[in-house]
């Protein structure tokens, strides 16, 4: 790592530097030098002298700084004298620059300052850009033409270049920068700041210098270049108000402090426009107290107010230079400074002793050294009570130092030294990060707890400052400087000091033991993603994301998620408050490692923030981090509660919502788009639960899984899924069945609907976590049957396909299948050996006492099963009991009072009679007529109601259910647009809607809540649409929390679903005993 310096100025104007390769402060060699301010950049440091001149100190290097001066000697040919320096009146000067516009005789070149010296005399460049024997002359027809070393018959003019080098000789010393001549120099400067070297990716990066005059004007130093370190002149930058101080970061950030206490932010800074384009005003952190000092880094801004409180500006970077808000940081500082990697250095208010906060640049750029390992607390005797020290008046310019000296004297007179503190007068402070004891001068010095937050900060600040002064004083005394208490610093600059958490620097290691750790109030994590911009033109953009978390004074944490991007060379950003995030959902998007960020507003607009990570690990790390922040700000921790709503996405991810008591309230219920969903490890196709904490799930391969609770020992979970594509063909008289269809036909390779083209080559597993485990093969197990080659036939594509060909069949299709597998870890235990297609747990109230919980299921072959021995103590149960049927079933549900309903594969509905705890298998099936001309495919039974979904995604309600007549009387159509329904123990109704009205392009599958459901209105009144875009299944059968009853409960909610058809009434059928 290269050697860099930390610079500081004491109250007497003496300049010190602390090298990363050294162990102590070193005073500048020039004993007469007195500076008021310093500002450091890479390899250099600028300062303002007490004589109001600007000084520059460049670190010595093996490569000298050399500048080449050049001028051109021009001649014209005439028939009498040949080539002479007698030129035409319209010609350029005899000695000029390369353009010929400016005269440059040899004697006109002067050294810009005493910091330069000539290396030699003028000489002719003999090469002319290439080897030449012409004495350095170049020839041309006329001066504006192109020159070449070859002399031709029409060469009427010639020129040659003279070169002389000058060398910068003031490296390693403080050199005075000369005043501009003949231009008017700026008025005396009261502050300077250098920065901007990170705006270029070139190796020869150089800083920009900004200055503030005593009249509040802002000046920019032009012409600073690696070959011209002093620059060439000053340029005034217009400002709307008078400026008192400014700070430039290594990048394109520039903040200025106004005399009225507010701040200005310069926008538009770039390599093409180093002075920027405009100013934006930002209010002071505190309305009552004005800002005193500002410090800028790569992506951070720190401010000290006149009450010496430290503030941090959140959300600051090149895309958003103004940031988004202020955060108060504990402690009292006189000034702060930001280093290369956003390390923060400050001066204690009372003792003006510099401290350093070292931090890892990418994970913890602010606060302590490591967020995961806080410093060990050691209880020590605390300081003696002290008087309230008067706060220094901080004016500008020279009186600033005088006031510090006077204030220091007052503090020294009223505060006893630490070694003289009587033990009986010590007061124990609240626990805080403390300073471990260090041996000093052969004896132990008692140290004290220092808490930079709260009311104790001022009381502990003086003693802590003296403590650090003693440590630094030891360093200075060993250097022989001779000051009893060590220097009292007025200014510190670490803009060129490269220190990070991994730096093996002796003075950092020794100094870190006495660093006062500010509370880790702010930390930031950044990453690189690709953002899917879903407005035209739709494309992926490379973005930088940042998660910024702050801790408030009351201990609550606040987090913001930023996305920074560029559009048409304009820097922009998006911000999402973590407490507004409602879900973090992994999604399938062009086979990238992608996840979507939902908020209530984005859920309403069906416009989630979709981000693609470069790797699976990066995606999982960010999902864990964001999810933990979301749960932390909501007070959610550990396993889901027993009342939780469980759901799965079409990708197989498991999502859980912790319900509130107002979720099912008749009035003022929680809107669906405000529900927060968090992910549970594992992978399932469907999941069911009840109020006793039992949760069962089924994978895509039919394996049954039971939830084992959140624990460190996650179980290995595998799942296998089949992916399908359809090969379509049309018959014609000439060639028979071919892949040449009509223009209006579906693609010849498509999905089952025929609306989307799907080939073997472009069909991928559901997500990158899946991997293929087989090759493509013809699927002969398609519903409806196939012929011996796997084909199904129909009159046309929208018609129903069958497994045999007839004279009217002009199209055919066959399904190709390929298996893929995923392996994850989660809190799920497999329940062998039977593979299931559906499962249902009896809903009950949370206070119910059941020795055994009835669990009914269907095997993948359609057999009805009952699980015995299931209880909260044994959630997996003991064995399966087979229930006889005369045909295979496809859906089953058990409701309150052991009501068991099922749907056969042909759409017939059955009710199981006489099911009880004493007779868990029941006695016989009662056939229930289906709705007219409809085949039901899924149903759910609650406490007193039954809802079902048919093949056309219509939702039906069963009328007339009574304890004496549990089969009900008729089916009533409630609405359309439903794919799955779940009825809870309070008869609450939730569905997975096929789509959301008004958003036809959204991926099917949205969570939807039926509002207004109650004893007098079991069908409810309207729908409330929640999160969507790929939801597969939902279970509300565990939520038995009774809503709080208010004095008035008027129905309300979003617009209702499409108009409901008139109900169709059908009588019951007879019982079928099996």
TrEMBL record:
Its main location: membrane. Keywords: Autophagy, Cytoplasmic vesicle, Lipid-binding, Lysosome, Membrane, Repeat. One of its GO terms (cellular component) is autophagosome membrane. It is found in: Cytoplasmic vesicle, Autophagosome membrane; Lysosome membrane. The keyword Zinc-finger does not apply. One of its GO terms (molecular function) is lipid binding. Residues 366-390, 1037-1074 are annotated as: Disordered. The keyword Membrane applies. One of its GO terms (biological process) is autophagy. InterPro entries: Beta-propeller_rpt_TECPR (IPR006624), Peroxin/Ferlin (IPR006614), PH-like_dom_sf (IPR011993), PH_domain (IPR001849), TECPR1-like_DysF (IPR010482), Tectonin_beta-prop (IPR051513). Residues 593-631 form the PH domain. Residues 1063-1074 have a biased composition (Polar residues). Residues 1048-1057 have a biased composition (Pro residues). Belongs to the TECPR1 family. This is Tectonin beta-propeller repeat-containing protein 1. It comes from Fundulus heteroclitus. The lineage of its organism: Eukaryota, Metazoa, Chordata, Craniata, Vertebrata.
